[in-house]
Amino acid sequence: MVKKSVAVLGLGKYGRSLAETLYSLGEDVLVVDRDEGLIRDISPKVTAAICANLDIEDEVNALGLQNMDIVITCMGGSLSASIMAVSIAKDKGVPVVIAKASSERMKKILKRVGADKIICPEEDGGVRSARILTSRYIHDYIAIDDNLCMIELMPKKGWIGKNLIELDLRKKYNMNVAAIKEKGGTWAFIDPGHILTEDNLLLIIIEKDMIDKWR
After folding, report:
1. CA atoms 100, 104, 107, 113: torsion sign
2. Cα-flanking dihedrals φ and ψ of residue 22, to 5°?
3. Secondary structure (H, E, C), 65-92
4. CA distance 74 to 146
5. What is the pLDDT of residue 44?
6. 210 alpha carbon, distance to own chain's centre
7. Which contacts (CB < 8 Å, 24+ apart) does range 138-143 have?
8. Predicted pLDDT of residue 93
9. Alpha helix stretches (DSSP H) within 53-192
10. How crowded is residue 112: how many other Cβ atoms within 10 Å of its Cβ?
11. What is the rounded distance in angstroms from the CA atom of residue 76 to the CA atom of residue 106?
12. Which residue ranges form the domains of the chain, and what is each CATH number?
């Protein structure tokens, strides 16, 4: 798996959770915040940590965001800083810019200035977002308990044109396929003989440790 370079701007509860989880999943993670104490505390848990004022344009420009695959703004309490960071990241050609919003109004404004995706996370949203961001196949991730989780999964390329009997996902990855749906359709129980297509989305129950092995 090719590592992604991810910048997390702002270290509130969500930003810290997201950054630490991304790093634990093997990504290169740069974090930025104006609070020296937060930067000092998180330094051992990420690739790089920079103390900078995200309200100042020159300091944001100096971060080297053009080298990132993904930039995530986590300053939900500061609309002006979020707008500036999103705009600068897009101007520098960052492929994916994601912004955290704390209200519907903020969501609309950040979308207007160029954010590719807006997130309005719950308290545990950082872990969930990290799981989704680090896999191009996972659409959603829901923790069931400390051991099990449920994920919405696109079939991998090697699965297309095969059925569940041939793939034997339960034996290979300890995956249990609970349901299936077509794009724009509704969830339904899956026939093991169903031939998977690119338009399918699978609902999987799996042990959390097995996600990293599967990835």
Report:
1. negative
2. -60, -45
3. HHHCCEEEECCCCCHHHHHHHHHHHHHC
4. 26
5. 96
6. 18
7. 139/201, 143/208
8. 95
9. 57-61, 79-91, 104-112, 125-133, 164-167, 169-173
10. 10
11. 8
12. 5-133 (3.40.50.720), 138-214 (3.30.70.1450)
118-138: burial string, b at 16+ Cβ within 10 Å, e else: bbebeeebbbbbbbbbbbebb
Q: What is the per-residue pLDDT across 150-187, written as a single tens digit (0 to 9) for each?
A: 777 888 888 999 999 999 988 888 888 888 888 778 88
Cβ distance 139 to 188 under 8 Å? no
Helix (H) or strand (E) holding 50: strand 48-51
The one-letter amino acid code at 202 reads L
7: left (phi over 0), alpha (psi -120 to 50) or beta: beta
Task: Give the three-class secondary structure for 197.
Answer: coil
Among 12, 122, 10, residue whose Cα is nearest residue 71 = 10
The pLDDT value given to residue 101: 86
Q: Mean pLDDT, 10 residues at a time, over the chain (215 residues)? A: 84 88 85 96 96 95 94 88 95 91 87 86 54 50 61 85 91 84 83 91 78 58
Look up tokens 């959603």; give the residue: 140
Place of tokens 């810019």: 97
pLDDT given for residue 201 in this prediction: 85
